[in-house]
Specification:
Elements: E1 6-9, E2 13-17, E3 23-28, E4 31-34, E5 39-42, H1 46-63, E6 70-73, E7 78-82, E8 85-86, E9 89-96, H2 99-105, E10 112-122, E11 131-132, H3 134-139, H4 145-168, E12 171-178, E13 180-183, E14 186-189, E15 198-202, H5 212-215, H6 221-232
Antiparallel strand pairs: 1-2, 2-3, 3-7, 4-5, 6-7, 8-13, 9-10, 9-12, 10-11, 12-15, 13-14
Helix pairs in contact: 1-6
Bound molecules: adenosine-5'-diphosphate and uridine-5'-diphosphate.
């Protein structure tokens, strides 16, 4: 499939049209950002590592029946995906307390959450992705009741699969963000699953292995992303 003109350049990925309107090319760039784009950097090999990491996870989810946008790898840094009508609501699951949850509710980082929590955020950089509830999504037309129900059930299906996959590889999947969209009437998992959008701790030492290494200047960001992938079985060659 041919990569035609750029449709959108986000903070970390660029989206291109193809000759078939049902599909897009997503390019994973080396750009990284945190705190709503305030902290920015280019990290060598990040695009390639996240593209291959995401492909591995999306394939594993698809094998277990999760509808995903990923079609195939196009190059080291590009994937062909289904063109989704994105739903501007981010779904966050938390297995362990960390990040904004701790700040908002005064919870100790590391508290195991049983059952895991499920939160919705509006995807809007200008408003700093505010937390919303289902009624906001319905009243303002950001998602339908059917879409919300599907997004929640798919997010927990993903959690059951990935929590075990990470635990079996000696890691704790602390929390993560998913984005969904519609493709031919079906709610489909879009965007990416990579250490950029989740928190992963080493199960034995508690060491942070995700984007918090960039946020908190812990160093070796991409080395850790690659270590997470290698433990899961991602082929980075
Ligand atoms: P951001 O927009 O948050 O800066 P990115 O740099 O990751 O994020 O840009 C990727 C953009 O592509 C996001 O806005 C995301 O919602 C969108 N996107 C992801 N997957 C698809 C898809 N399959 N179809 C259409 N848009 C998508
Ligand atoms: N997250 C993300 N993009 C966002 C917001 C959150 O990928 O725009 C991820 C984040 O990496 C973490 C989880 O969602 O794994 C929960 O994030 P949180 O609400 O704790 O916010 P943060 O502490 O990252 O500001």
């Amino acid at each position: 499939m041919q990569k035609l003109e750029e449709l959108y350049a986000g903070k970390a990925k660029s989206v291109y049209r193809t000759e078939d309107s049902r599909f897009l090319v997503i390019e994973f760039r080396n750009d990284t950002s945190a705190f709503d784009g305030v902290k920015k950097a280019k990290l060598d090999r990040k695009g390639e590592v996240n593209n291959k990491f995401n492909a591995f996870i999306m394939r594993r989810l698809a094998e277990q029946g999760v509808p995903v946008h990923f079609v195939e790898l196009k190059s080291a840094t590009e994937s062909i995906v289904k063109s989704l009508n994105m739903i501007p609501v981010e779904c966050v699951v938390r297995n362990v307390a960390a990040g904004s949850l701790c700040k908002r509710l005064g919870i100790q980082e590391g508290l195991e959450l049983n059952p895991p929590t499920f939160e919705l955020f509006l995807k809007n950089d200008d408003l700093h992705d505010p937390m919303i509830n289902e009624y906001h999504a319905l009243s303002f037309g950001w998602a339908t009741a059917e879409q919300l129900a599907k997004m929640e059930s798919l997010t927990f299906q993903v959690n059951a699969i990935l929590k075990k996959m990470f635990a079996d590889a000696g890691m704790t999947l602390v929390d993560y963000k998913l984005e969904f969209g519609e493709f031919e009437g079906e709610v489909v998992l879009g965007d990416e699953f990579s250490p950029d959008g989740c928190r992963i701790w080493d199960a034995a030492t508690g060491e942070k292995m995700d984007k918090d290494r960039f946020r908190q200047d812990l160093g070796n960001v991409i080395e850790y992303y690659q270590e997470v992938g290698m433990r899961l079985g991602v082929d980075f060659n």
